[in-house]
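Let's practice the habit of predicting before peeking. Look at the sequence and jot down your guess about where helices and strands might fall. Then scroll down.
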Amino acid sequence: MRISTMAQQATRTLRIGMVPADGIGREVLPAAQRVMTAAPGIPPLEFVHLDAGFEYFQQHGTSLPQATIETLKGSCDGAMFGSVSSPSHKVEGYTSPIVRLRKELNLYANIRPVTGPVLPGSIYTKPVDMVTIRENTECLYVKQESLEDGPDGKVARAVRLITEKASTRIGRKALEIARARAALRNETGSTTPTKVTICHKSNVLSVTDGLFRTSVRSVYDADKPENGGEGRYARVGLDEQLVDSMVYRMFREPEVFDVIVAPNLYGDIISDGAAALAGSLGLVSSVNASDDFFMGEPVHGSAPDIAGQDKANPIASIRSAALMLEYMGFSEPALAIYKAVDEVLMDGKTLTPDLPGGTATTSQVVDAVLNAL
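Done guessing? Here is the structure:
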């Protein structure tokens, strides 16, 4: 889905904010930068280093300096985020910089495709082409938690926020992405059906998940001509799946899914799980999207056990950069990057250790992608 007119201004220099943050983020973002710069058809690029992360918090008392937010809002055309080492226990004063950035920049959609060639050793041997559209601002990620003493010990509570506004907005985003996929399939003669699957648990959480489900459905139903709509989604089907059974089906028969739309927590879990279908978290890209700003983000974490060893898989970051460029409207360089990455993966000679038989370094994989470009 190409929803920006920025490509029409390709003669000017694009300013890309680079937020490496923690761990291997400091290795994979420079890799993506090298590939973006070399992509054919790309306009002049200027990269701006910006601070954030848990390590920055340990040194300065904040995980996301205001200067980073203001630079991204005021002078950047797009951004890339590396990875963050958020601790699994409570650290007083610390909040995740990526969660806050999504809210500060109104990046309400996290778009995570899983596609590409089947690699040796993958748990699934058929091509997978699915994309998860995750609502990025609500659910349990509002982080309104409390801990108090009760008669039988500690009692922890968390607020889960689901609103009609955010659910309708993410439903419309998912349907528009599906509409674009249907149009592309029609152009190429593909007979693959296009559909959106609503992922929820409204049989138990009838109020919160119920509101999410009905809000997404209302966008689809309102578009039908018999309801006075424009029929924009006439080529798109709509179904739904309970989140627990969806996890089961996703691993058993992922080919039944196309575009999945989910609340924040479910979307996080199922899109990470879907990475196993691709072969590694190191291969899976995402883009955080508003209606006019896009920030690429590899799905993997900060991997402190291999940080600084030139072992990290740069493919997820490179694909995320291509995804960011695609949504900014630069489809030619994005497509060239996708094809170069697929060529390297299919060749199988230059893979990092997270992939079966892989022994290559981060640098060697980047060089292989550049050669393919």
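How did you do? The longest helix spans residues 164-188.
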